[in-house]
Design brief:
binds acetoacetyl-coenzyme A, 13 helices, globular, four-stranded antiparallel sheet, alpha+beta
């Protein structure tokens, strides 16, 4: 119909384009920026929960490095720990857009809680649901999706951080089981988890193709939770070293085919990075809102400081950068929901949103002046929390490797 309408006409290219646009889009909105009612409802539920349940005590938990046990229990009950998992396994069956909306709201108030949400949803539940077998899903995923159990993702080692293929932890094949030996570092939910997805080298000759992923249960003989890290930020989440000394892991706990472990880790991390990008976005928007509100009540030189251009321009810059970051985060989430490749869009979202989180939180402290440097105003904590978003689930430099390789591969 469109061709028939255009054939032989003397129309200029702009008019042809317009007619195509009208005919093709009568019933479609290919660039629709509107969130659905369901998305708005989830965002508002997360916002209310964060204000009512996470804000009280957030300063004290940060100061004491106290794990938010009660808050995590409530997040599990409300469905925040298995948002994208199919209802068949106890999850919410929601899309990635819903997940990043909730991540942003939780991160505005308490980034220690949001990293727990992110690791459990993106790295553990998603990895198990996508690559685990039916028995593994029934046994582990159903508990992880409801928050009855918590999960951890164990890839990093003392000598294998960014260089993730250099795994030193070994998993020796003994027929019906594997024997695990080695050390994992900087593990989120290190002590609070019940189940651990552990990446280990089975056949060094095969390099990354000889790596496997296993489900390890807390309490398995030879598995020890080591010391808790004393951290700059996200101090409510527990980060530990883990030691594996001849841990016997049944073969049925291996995820996927023999040698699938590295791809499992990479694919899982690609989605994880969208969650961390949303966390960075939330930290930035939380700091911006505090700075904006403070600037409307704090007076200097006879007027509220928002009336000084020095402050108003800071707010304008923050808001612009946060909006740009939000578009990248939403695009990556949308790519994942549409079944598009999201390696690059997730990496771009994380790279940019984490930089915006750093820049915005530093400026939010500046807007608060001396008050920004003390705990009760929250922005100094957000500034400390922001830094990790440039480091975990792939440093900013690793995101640039992923992006540039994606650009140059064809
Ligand atoms: N999806 C599927 N496969 C992938 C992939 C992806 N996104 N990325 C890489 N691969 C595959 C490659 O295709 C290749 O397989 P083939 O040989 O079969 O083609 C294999 O993996 C090795 O890839 P590379 O040759 O690209 O490997 P590399 O050594 O150059 O490293 C890297 C690639 C991107 C730098 C990777 O090592 C990396 O992502 N490093 C960062 C690790 C990281 O993010 N750690 C975070 C720790 S977890 C954490 O922080 C959680 C927490 O607690 C909060």
């Amino acid at each position: 119909e469109i061709s028939a309408c255009l054939v032989g006409s003397e129309m200029c290219i702009r008019d042809r384009k317009y007619i195509c646009h009208v005919l093709l889009n009568l019933n479609q909105h290919p660039m629709d920026f509107k969130l659905t009612e369901e998305h708005l409802m989830i965002r508002d539920a997360a916002r209310d929960f964060a204000k009512n349940e996470l804000l009280p005590g957030v300063i004290e938990r940060d100061e004491k490095q106290e794990f938010p046990t009660e808050q995590v229990k409530k997040m599990g009950e409300l469905g925040f720990l298995g948002m994208m998992v199919s209802p068949e396994y106890g999850g919410g069956g929601m899309d990635t857009v819903s997940y990043v909306l909730a991540m942003e709201e939780i991160s505005k108030i308490d980034a220690s809680c949001s990293v727990i949400v992110s690791v459990n949803n993106s790295l553990v539940c998603w990895g198990l649901e996508t690559y685990g077998n039916e028995e593994q899903k029934k046994k582990y995923l159903t508990k992880l999706a409801t928050g009855e159990s918590i999960g951890a993702f164990c890839l990093s080692e003392p000598e294998a951080g960014s260089d993730a293929t250099s795994q030193r932890t070994t998993a020796i094949d003994k027929g019906d089981h594997y024997i695990l030996n080695g050390t994992k570092n900087w593990i989120t939910n290190g002590n609070s988890a019940d189940y651990y997805l552990v990446i280990a080298q089975t056949d060094r000759e095969k390099k990354h193709k000889g790596i496997n992923a296993f489900i390890v249960e807390k309490g398995m003989e030879g598995f020890e939770v080591g010391p808790k890290e004393q951290k700059l930020g996200i101090r409510g989440s527990d980060t530990h070293t883990l030691n594996f000394n001849d841990v016997k892991v049944p073969k049925e706990n291996r995820i996927g085919e023999d040698g699938f472990g590295f791809k499992f880790a990479m694919k899982t991390l690609s989605g994880g990075r969208i969650g961390i990008a949303a966390q960075a976005l939330g930290i930035a928007s939380g700091a911006y809102e505090l700075a904006r509100d403070y600037s409307k009540i704090r007076k200097a030189f006879g007027t509220e400081i928002c009336n000084h251009q020095a402050i108003a321009f800071k707010l304008a810059d923050m808001h612009t950068q946060i909006s740009a970051a939000r578009h990248l985060v939403m695009k990556a989430a949308w790519d994942k929901d549409q079944g598009n490749n999201y390696d690059m869009s997730g990496a771009m979202a994380k790279l940019y949103a984490s930089q915006v989180a750093m820049d915005t939180t530093v400026e939010a402290v500046q807007v608060h002046g001396g008050n920004g440097y003390v705990k009760e105003y929250h922005v100094e904590r957000l500034m400390r929390d922001a830094k990790i978003t440039q480091i975990y689930e792939g440093t900013s430099e690793i995101q640039k490797i992923v992006i540039s390789r994606g650009l140059l591969k064809d």
